[in-house]
Design a protein that fits this description.
Largest sheet: 7 strands, parallel
Helix content: 25-40%
Shape: globular
Strand order of the largest sheet: 5-4-3-2-1-6-7
Oligomer: single chain
Number of strands: 7
Structural class: alpha/beta
CATH superfamily of the largest domain: Glycosyl transferase family 29
């Protein structure tokens, strides 16, 4: 009997010690001892912000100095930028005002065919959704508009360009071998049909259409059974592209018309592709930086990838475009990176 009582007392003591130990642990847990360990483990396994070259855009969450309010507050610029301007062409924005329709249909003498039928066919193949509206909801959308001027050589702008959330590049814009100066990131590769031979897979295709056949060409790229004539082009556009139809966006004639009015072109029918994308970025993005625009010391224009000295004339109102960029910079609406103007040999 005494032996049984001793065993019972030992059992009770063991159970009591276990309960006390549990209470000590529980108290320590609630006061942060174990929770610090759990928090450390969670932090180590938490996903990091996507790399800039990720196909998913994750806008910066830092303080944003948005261009829209600054343009609206500018007496000299507010009249040039209309909030109601349609920037991207898709099923929801397909209709054109009479002024814009007349302007766009008469941009080039080679414009022919039914616009309505071309749009019906196009939007069955290419949704053209406004991804920018989705991205801006996540944070401050910082964009870089990259021209192809020789002043990029020796600039060292590559890392600055790639740090932006969205990078627009125009027409022929090789990055291989020039990464230190021009960066490597391309979010949107802006082309028209004849310049699409330079399209680099990896970025999204951004079409600047100047006529109905351009819309038909884009449809044919994603619908091999859609036959079109290519006699409206100086050189034949590519028959196919390594591009994703769901990621393609198309510049709206509304924006093209606004850019012409804003740049006050007096002698030419339309602004340059770079000028139109600059205008578009002021609507699509929260902050805008501009690289690779401008002329050499003798007024010549050349490309960073071209050994030639450059040409003194372009097919656009280059001086007018330069003046407006300078106004935007002066009023602190955009950042302009002017770079240098070296030859390829000097840059190397």
């Amino acid at each position: 009997m005494l032996k049984a009582r001793s065993l019972l007392k030992a059992l009770v003591a063991a159970v009591s010690a276990g309960i006390i130990g549990f209470l000590v642990f529980y108290h320590s847990f609630n006061n942060g001892v174990s929770s610090r360990f759990l928090t450390t483990s969670w932090k180590e396994s938490a996903p990091s912000r996507p790399h800039p070259t990720s196909k998913f855009i994750e806008p910066s969450s830092l303080k944003c100095d948005r261009v829209g309010p600054k343009i609206a507050a500018s007496p000299s610029l507010s009249e040039l930028f209309n909030k109601a301007t349609k920037v991207l062409w898709n099923e929801g924005t397909r209709n054109l005002s009479p002024n814009v329709r007349d302007y766009w249909m008469n941009l080039l003498h080679r414009n022919r065919g039914s616009l309505e039928q071309a749009l019906d066919d196009l939007f069955r193949a290419v949704p053209g959704r406004d991804v920018f509206a989705e991205w801006r909801k996540r944070g401050c959308l910082r964009c870089a508009v990259i021209g192809n001027s020789k002043n990029m050589l020796g600039s060292g702008y590559g890392s600055s360009i790639d740090a932006n959330d969205v990078v627009f590049r125009m027409n022929r814009c090789p990055t291989g071998g020039y990464e230190k100066d021009v960066g490597s990131k391309t979010t949107f590769h802006v082309v028209y049909p004849e310049s699409a031979h330079a399209y680099q897979p990896g970025g999204r295709l951004f079409l600047v259409p100047f006529k109905v056949p351009d819309l038909q060409w884009l449809t044919s790229v994603f619908n091999v059974a859609y036959n079109i004539s290519d006699d409206g082009y100086r050189s034949r556009p590519p028959a196919s592209l390594d591009a994703n139809a769901s990621q393609v966006v198309i510049l709206h004639p509304d924006l093209m018309y606004e850019a012409k009015v804003g740049f006050r072109g007096r002698t030419k029918s339309y602004p340059s592709t770079g000028a139109m994308i600059l205008f578009a970025s002021l609507h699509l993005c929260d902050e805008v930086s501009v690289y690779g625009f401008g002329f050499g010391p003798r007024g010549e224009f050349g490309h960073y990838y071209d050994e030639s000295a450059g040409i003194s004339l372009t097919s656009h109102d280059a001086n007018v475009e330069t003046q407006l960029r300078e106004r935007l910079e002066k009023e602190n609406i955009i950042r302009v990176y002017k770079g240098h103007y070296l030859t390829l040999r000097e840059a190397r």
